């Protein structure tokens, strides 16, 4: 009687999958990253509540429901975060504002990141005059201090969500380009890239298949940190009255509207401001954790 | 060293030209007719035509840029559309207000950041380190406009303390230290947090090096090891961050000046944007960017000067 020998089929080694598995393992060890990541998941859930399909069924008030007799009410059981100068429920507006904040943060970083990565990888991979031209343009963009570049762009394009995303994206491009260029330069000199060239691989294949996967770690860390700074920049522009316009429940715009009433009703600026701090803090903590997990040398 | 400084100065030229092109382009990026938008909705066709001629908008772009640059190098940044005053005069009266705000904020950020960073590194993984880093994370995540408003609420409105800070400042900067303190705290806190994190990380890296171990093995006291051997080298990368933070303060001053009603270049920029006075916007953005580029040059040179291990050539 022949005995059937069972052999386990070896799982196909997938480097991409292994990378993310390892990242997940490292991340789970970092308590701060777990807390930051948990908060980000919570923010996403809150932003789902703030959609027109779910919000009206879950929340008592509409974000733009004006109730003048109840204006500037302090926090109470009816209005957890109080009401603003039009009697609108601040808690409801904050929930609806979460979606907008995350949308602006993610979209502007995605757009800025894509362009930054393309510029950085092309500059680092090809070198020479291509590198010089691209990096000098990036130097010019970095020469504008702080939010001044985003401010200048919004000032000419006009204040709207779309224009603010464009401004914050352009503001994010050089940071990505610099980091990716640096990482590409170090990877480009490795022997396996020479081997790929010798085998006749095209530039596009080398860049997408061999360079980009190897510079993903700094890109992921930078993207997380940039979301925090994009949220700060966007809310700052709206606070100045140059970004999202009232009555849209954007937190910076809410603070701009509430400024004139903060003497008697400080809650109108406190709660939107605290939400900005919490969101930015969560992304910063998560970014720190990611950096520690992805780059053990930085773990100090 | 001279060779290095000359080379850095030459490298600055394309950046400054790029900045000037971008600032010049601002007026041409306005969707629609720039002169019409600047003149306002009710402006007559004659007024719009006059404005177009005054701003030279009918010339080819290259000619416009050439004229713009020839005026800029002579110190002429054009005239304000709203009050007709030369932009350079408007900036002159406000330049030092913003520069002082940025300088005081940098001093505060460096002072607090360095102390916090050193304490955190020396006592790493203790409660002191953890507390400082948590506070730093908060400082990093706080929008300066919110912090400014909270400070006003606590100290000026709620506490009835420092009531002067809410007074308008017709002459620009505050007349007493009380008017200076809150805007500087509002602007400098984020920078202090960044410098603290950088100092800690840099100190920990240096403390782990062989020469520190050798110094300890020789029996040198811990105080001398930290302050004479480690700190000197740990401070080098921090200098770059200080330069970048000065730039962030110049940009952040736009918001802080608006909150505290300080008549600096930041407030001038915001007012100009609101009034669609683009020559003033161009002027302030150009001057602030050039100042930032020069500060970075000074930082770069001092970095190389302090870090003897870097080959200057």
TrEMBL record, chain A:
Subcellular location: Cell membrane
PROSITE patterns reported for this sequence: ABC_TM1
Topological category with respect to the lipid bilayer: Multi-pass membrane protein
Ranges where the ABC transmembrane type-1 domain occurs: 98-287
Keywords recorded for this protein, A-Z: Cell membrane, Membrane, Transmembrane, Transmembrane helix, Transport
Keyword Cell membrane belongs to the record: yes
Residue ranges crossing the lipid bilayer per the database entry: 32-54, 102-128, 140-158, 227-248, 268-290
Entries under InterPro entries matching the protein: ABC_transport_permease, BP-dependent_transpt_permease, MetI-like, MetI-like_sf, OppC_N
Gene3D superfamilies: MetI-like (1.10.3720.10)
Family note: Belongs to the binding-protein-dependent transport system permease family. OppBC subfamily.
Protein name as it appears in the record: Nickel transporter permease
Organism: Savagea faecisuis
High-level lineage: Bacteria, Bacillati, Bacillota, Bacilli, Bacillales
UniProtKB/TrEMBL annotation, chain B:
Protein localization: Cell membrane
SUPFAM superfamilies, alphabetized: MetI-like
UniProt keyword annotations, A-Z: Cell membrane, Membrane, Transmembrane, Transmembrane helix, Transport
Domain ABC transmembrane type-1: 95-299
CDD domains: TM_PBP2 (cd06261)
Domain of life: Bacteria
Transmembrane segments annotated in the record for this chain: 12-30, 101-122, 134-156, 176-196, 234-260, 280-299
GO cellular component, one term: plasma membrane
Family: Belongs to the binding-protein-dependent transport system permease family.
Name listed for the protein in its UniProt record: ABC transporter permease
């Amino acid at each position: 009687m022949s005995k059937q020998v069972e052999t386990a089929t070896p799982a196909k080694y997938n480097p991409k999958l292994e990378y993310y598995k390892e990242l997940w393992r490292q991340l789970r060890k970092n308590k701060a990253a777990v807390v930051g990541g948990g908060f980000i998941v919570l923010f996403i859930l809150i932003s789902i509540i703030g959609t027109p399909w779910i919000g009206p069924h879950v929340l008592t008030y509409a974000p733009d429901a004006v109730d003048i007799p109840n204006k500037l009410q302090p926090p109470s059981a009816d209005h957890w975060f109080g009401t603003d100068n039009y009697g609108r429920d601040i808690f409801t507006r904050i929930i609806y504002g979460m979606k907008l904040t995350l949308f602006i943060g993610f979209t502007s970083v995605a757009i800025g990141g894509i362009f930054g990565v393309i510029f950085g990888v092309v500059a680092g991979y090809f070198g020479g005059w291509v590198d010089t031209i691209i990096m000098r343009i990036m130097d010019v963009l970095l020469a504008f201090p702080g939010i001044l570049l985003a401010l200048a762009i919004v000032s000419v394009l006009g204040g709207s969500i779309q224009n603010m995303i464009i401004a914050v994206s352009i503001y994010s491009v050089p940071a990505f380009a610099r980091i990716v260029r640096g990482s590409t330069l170090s990877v480009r000199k490795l022997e396996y890239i020479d081997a790929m060239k010798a085998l006749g691989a095209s530039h596009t294949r080398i860049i997408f298949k061999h360079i980009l996967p190897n510079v993903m770690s700094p890109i992921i860390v930078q993207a997380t940190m940039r979301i925090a700074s994009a949220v700060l920049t966007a809310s700052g522009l709206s606070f100045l009255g140059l970004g999202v316009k009232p009555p849209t429940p954007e937190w910076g715009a809410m603070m701009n509207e509430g400024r004139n009433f903060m003497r008697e009703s400080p809650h109108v600026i406190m709660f939107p401001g605290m939400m900005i701090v919490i969101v930015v803090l969560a992304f910063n903590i998560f970014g720190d954790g990611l950096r520690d997990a992805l780059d053990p040398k930085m773990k100090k | 060293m001279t060779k290095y400084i000359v080379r850095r100065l030459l490298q600055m030229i394309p950046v400054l030209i790029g900045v000037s092109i971008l600032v010049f382009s601002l007026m041409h990026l306005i969707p629609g007719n720039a002169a019409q938008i600047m003149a306002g909705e009710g402006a007559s066709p004659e007024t719009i035509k006059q404005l177009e001629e005054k701003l030279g908008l009918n010339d080819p772009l290259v000619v416009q840029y050439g004229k713009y640059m020839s005026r800029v190098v002579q110190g002429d940044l054009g005239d304000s559309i709203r009050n007709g005053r030369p932009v350079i005069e408007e900036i002159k009266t406000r330049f030092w207000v913003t520069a002082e705000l940025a300088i005081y904020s940098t001093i505060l950020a460096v002072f607090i950041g360095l102390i916090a960073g050193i304490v955190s590194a020396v006592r790493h993984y203790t409660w002191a380190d953890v507390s400082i880093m948590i506070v730093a994370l908060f400082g990093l995540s706080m929008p300066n406009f919110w912090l400014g408003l909270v400070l006003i609420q606590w100290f000026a409105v709620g506490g009835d303390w420092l009531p002067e800070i809410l007074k308008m400042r017709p002459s620009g900067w505050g007349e007493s230290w009380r008017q200076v303190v809150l805007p500087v705290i509002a602007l400098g806190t984020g920078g202090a947090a960044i410098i603290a994190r950088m100092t800690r990380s840099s100190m920990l890296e240096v403390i782990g090096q062989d020469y520190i171990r050798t110094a300890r093995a020789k029996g040198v006291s811990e105080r001398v090891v930290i302050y004479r051997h480690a700190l000197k080298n740990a401070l080098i990368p921090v200098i770059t961050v200080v330069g970048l933070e000065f730039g962030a303060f110049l940009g952040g001053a736009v918001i802080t000046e608006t909150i505290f009603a300080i008549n600096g270049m930041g407030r001038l920029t915001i007012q100009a944007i609101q009034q669609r006075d683009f020559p003033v916007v161009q002027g302030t953005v150009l001057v602030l960017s050039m100042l930032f580029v020069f500060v970075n040059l000074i930082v770069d040179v001092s970095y190389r000067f302090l870090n003897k291990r870097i080959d200057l050539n």
